[in-house]
Amino acid sequence: MRFWQNFRLRTKVNIILLISLAGLLSTSLIWQYRQHQRLVFSEASEKAEIIITEATRTREYISRQLQIGQIELNEDRYGMIPVVVANRIGRLVSEDLTYSIRHTSNRFRNPENAPDQYERKVLERMTNRASLDYVAEVTEFDGNPVFRYLQAAYADSSCLECHGKPDESPQFLRNIYPPEKDQAYNYKIGEVIGAVSVVIPIAQIEKRLAHGFNTTLVTTAGFFCALVICLGLMIRKTVVTPLSVLSQTIDDIRQTGRFTEAISRDTHDEIGDLVAGFNAMVSELKEKTGQLEESETRFRLMTEIARDAIVAFLPNGQMFLFNQKAEKIFGYKENELLGESFDRLFLPDEESYVPSLSSFIAKAPEQWFEQEHHLIGLRRDQKTVKLKMSIKIIDTGEYPFFMALLSTLDANS
Ligand code: HEC
Q: How far is it, in rounded angstroms, from Cα 333 to Cα 84?
């Protein structure tokens, strides 16, 4: 926090803007990435649904044609069994395209249809939960990102011909898959026999979508950068620059003691009010200082026409006025002594004034000020001069000071 307080306003604004830029960019990046993932998912889902619908319709169509043509299935016509047709067509098509489709089951009949690890788990879930019609997700397959879609295949009365009671099944089927070895008999209506399983590599889809993703990314980044730059320029113009002009002006006044021209007020917001307030304050101060300087000049003129030498000093001994007659007595010029101690005008061995003349005066009893005192002055040329002095306390309120009236006792000076 200490660090932060020491930063200039401009740095703070820049830091805040940079942080917001990073925040905005990363949020939009995350959001767009999610959007992208969702798009990949929905594209793949759509594809999978098409493939599955096609396979299912093929199966149903073959099944109907067999009925209409009253075609008896036998070992030679094994390739006409609807599931077999669907699987084989699927295999043929997936050789041309990148996806794969097949029927599988945990109680598989043909070992070629045995489920892989992923399919086995999904099938278990489907068997245990009747409402789970399908599972769709992005996972890995042989180390590649893929979209997998499994749709449950339920047993209806048509299926039971070959998956129901073994003794009601066609003889050729029992020959190939003897009931005592086969696990795909004895299903009941509504039971999950297996699933249609589709695997779609998503690298291709991702590649296609990545281009659009990159374009939006560049556009958003550009947009946010432009936004932040505009904001930065605006804050700089409306806040930072006027404030630094103000503080620069205050600095100038402090260093030179001269009041500057009014700062131009460009806006009517809080900053504008601040500038206007500052200008009003400066012009008021200017006026007051003028009055003060005038009264100071009057005071000085009065000390010059006085008969005595006059030296004015603060309670700590610092001199701030030294009139011409004093200059003549001591041989100093006023500007050599301003701010110096009153004590240096006298010989230091004035025992009665302990520890020093000015500190004595600061605490002297009232009647001391009513009397005249004789002292030995010390001139600039180190010669001494006998002096008569009376001191007055000038109590103007907050800052009292002393005024020493001095005249020489030597007849020749
Ligand atoms: C005419 C007999 C017959 C009918 C009717 C039939 N099937 Fe099959 N089914 C088979 C045969 C034979 C296989 C083995 C396929 C192979 O060798 O690829 C099989 C395999 C399957 C498989 C793949 C897993 C495995 O056991 O190899 C699923 C899933 C399946 N059938 C579901 C169904 C469903 C659902 C129905 C009803 C809509 C159905 N079958 C109707 C004979 C049939």
A: 123
Residue nearest (by alpha carbon) to ligand 1 atom 34: 159
Candidate from 56, 70, 83, 176 with most ligand 1 atoms within 8 A of CB, to mutate: 83
Reading the block at residue 244, the tokens are 């630094």
**pLDDT of amino acid 105:** 97
Q: Whose CA is nearest to atom 13 of ligand 1?
A: 109
Atom of ligand 1 at shortest range from CA of 196: 29
pLDDT digits (tens, 9 = 90+) for 71-84: 888 999 999 999 99
Query: What is residue 77's DSSP assignment?
Result: G
What 39-44 contacts at long range (C-beta under 8 Å, 24+ apart), as own/partner pairs, is: 39/209, 40/138, 40/147, 40/202, 40/205, 40/206, 40/209, 41/136, 41/138, 41/147, 43/205, 43/209, 44/138, 44/147, 44/149, 44/200, 44/202, 44/205
Tell me, what's the pLDDT at 413? 44
Hey, which of 91, 163, 171 would you mutate to test ligand 1's pocket, going by the most ligand atoms within 8 Å of its Cβ? 163
Residue of 290, 295, 245, 289 lying closest to 266 (CA atoms): 245
Instruction: Evaluate: CB of 13 within 6 angstroms of ligand 1.
Output: no
The one-letter amino acid at 265: R
- Assess whether the C-beta atom of 163 lies below 6 angstroms from ligand 1: yes
Beta strand 144-154 with 192-201 is: antiparallel
Q: How many other β-carbons are positioned within 10 Å of the β-carbon of residue 155? A: 17
The model's pLDDT over 354-396, given as tens digits with 9 standing for 90+, comes to 788 888 888 888 899 999 999 999 999 999 999 999 999 998 8
Q: How far, CA to CA in Å, does 192 sit from each of 61, 81, 170, 245, 311?
A: 21, 19, 22, 81, 116
Any bridge partners for residue 401, and if so which? 394
How far, in Å, CA of 374 to CA of 386, rounded? 7
Q: Superfamily for 306-408? A: PAS domain (3.30.450.20)
- CA torsion sign for 109, 113, 116, 119 is negative
CA nearest 400: which of 338, 339, 316? 316
pLDDT tens for residues 237-275?
A: 888 898 999 999 999 988 888 887 788 888 888 888 999
Ordered by start, the domain boundaries in the chain are: 2-209, 259-297, 306-408
How far apart, in Å, are the Cα atoms of 270 and each of 111, 275, 369, 386?
A: 82, 9, 55, 65
Q: Identify which of 231, 217, 238, 226 has the alpha carbon closest to the alpha carbon of residue 16.
A: 231
